[in-house]
């Protein structure tokens, strides 16, 4: 038999198929399925196309799929939305049994391999989630309009803020300034206003992509870019430290998942600097889509 795991984040949706020996058979990536970005019709289209493409790529039929586990960003926060999403998935997956989770739960299952501890997610948004002796808790995850500190969106906004200050002369110009200007093909600094408000309409996903410029600038030694990562690391460490207060056993096992961590030392080192001495930060065992597959296989609910 086979199991499907889906990681539905704010930027992309990853579908993965695993067999009963926990070997990955294949994966595909589609655009985001978040209803705030694509609507409920868009969410349905992503899942209908994603499921069909995954099965076709792996050469199996629906009948061979025992169970699916789906983790979605923001799932479970609003009851009306929760019910609507469940109806849509049921219509798409039909006879395939499925479970729906918040994406932080499948990230925890993947990063920590089902063990107790804390996972910090920093992708388009940010959130921390802990499981300790059967009890779970979340910190953060308030969304980009309220919080999401340390996320790719948050970093992207800091990049925009930094550029504006550099253009004014409030900060010294560096690699970040020139790289953003080149990336967006700006002939005039003030064209940034039109790009943000008209071209991308302040899109959460598009703004989050600007975090990549911060990483590239940091690699070239840009001090402002490095400081943005330092602030991001401090915010993520604060989430971890808050969750760590629930634990008595030490060291506390902490791992991480999300696109921000592709920035490697620029985000990892600040987090390590600001977390407590009783916390051990470890590389993730698996990605979130694999965590979803493992949950589907074990039919285990965290």
UniProtKB/TrEMBL annotation:
<feature type="domain" description="ATPase BadF/BadG/BcrA/BcrD type">
    <location>
        <begin position="4"/>
        <end position="296"/>
    </location>
</feature>
<dbReference type="InterPro" id="IPR002731">
    <property type="entry name" value="ATPase_BadF"/>
</dbReference>
<protein>
    <submittedName>
        <fullName>BadF-type ATPase</fullName>
    </submittedName>
</protein>
<dbReference type="InterPro" id="IPR043129">
    <property type="entry name" value="ATPase_NBD"/>
</dbReference>
<dbReference type="InterPro" id="IPR052519">
    <property type="entry name" value="Euk-type_GlcNAc_Kinase"/>
</dbReference>
<dbReference type="Pfam" id="PF01869">
    <property type="entry name" value="BcrAD_BadFG"/>
</dbReference>
